[in-house]
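tool_call: predict_structure(chain=1)
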Amino acid sequence: MRALVISGGGAKGAYAGGVAEYLIRDRGIHYDMFTGSSTGALLAPLLAAGEIDHARQVYTNVTQNDIFSAHPFIVKKKNGVYSSRINHLGIIKMFLKGRKTFGESFALRDLILKTFTIEHFNRIKEEGKKVAIAVSNFTCNVVEHKYLRDCTYEEF
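tool_result:
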């Protein structure tokens, strides 16, 4: 069995997507299992569904607006260079609302639903590909492990 394992970490996961594209498309390597954590958990199912171009499009065009409903960072571009800093006012607003986080990622759920569709999910199940992911559930303060074969689309 050959498995493709993609770690998380935002840009690190996106970089791994480029490496995965090279291995699958250019080197012709076939994987029996796709697994990932955090950012890798978003990428692994798309690769298992054969959506390499779609995965690249998502990871090269996603912005913090696509992920965060309440932004923990202020990102600016000056002379072609991006810089970021903590959004202190946003953090104060979250504190006053009684939230336990710097930002809220409700927009991420919408991005996932648009990016990884039920058609992708069903294709993976029909083809019998193995997909396992690990995600952090900060609400419950636990790491959750999901196996696509054992889940409905909504659960996954």
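agent: The chain has a mean pLDDT of 86. Proceeding to next step.
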